[in-house]
Amino acid sequence: MDVFVDTSVIIPAIIESSDSDLVRNFIQTTQYRLIISPLIYHEALYAGTKILLHERCGIESVPAVRNHIRKKGYIDMSDFIDCLNILMKDFTIYPDSKNTTIISHLAAKYHLLSGDALIVATCFEHNIHKLASFDSDFQKVSDISLLLQ
To answer: Tens of pLDDT along 74-94?
Structure first.
């Protein structure tokens, strides 16, 4: 059986937080096949970059993150990116939904942000009904069982 893994689970698997032990244990011991999509990789890379640039360089704003990356690239994030790429080897990557009608319908029906609606649409297209996430917005979605809440 498959479980779709949200960005909110990927980040504490790599960057230490109060949820890190729970997440790492889940990833290492689960009987589910762990699924992500390109959106999750993108979100994890972006979120991890923002978190670590704040911690390591004191950079807080999105424009400052953008300027730092334009000037220095991802040199300050290479350890994080290496860990993210290693972790991704344990996941199966399914394509994101391209059905904009369903995505917008789910966003409106469940009051979801567009990325979350894309995740739900992707899950439904691939017949996945379990989602590992700390994002309580997914609780509203019928036919999705939330893990790690």
So the answer is: 988 999 999 999 999 989 999
DSSP 92-130: EEPPPP--HHHHHHHHHHHT--HHHHHHHHHHHHTT--E
Angstrom CA distances, 30 to 1, 22, 93, 132, 134, stand at: 10, 11, 17, 11, 17
* CB atoms closer than 10 angstroms to residue 11: 21
Q: Considering the entire predicted model, what is its pTM?
A: 0.93
CATH code, residues 2-147: 3.40.50.1010
pLDDT digits (tens, 9 = 90+) for 49-71: 999 999 999 999 999 999 999 99
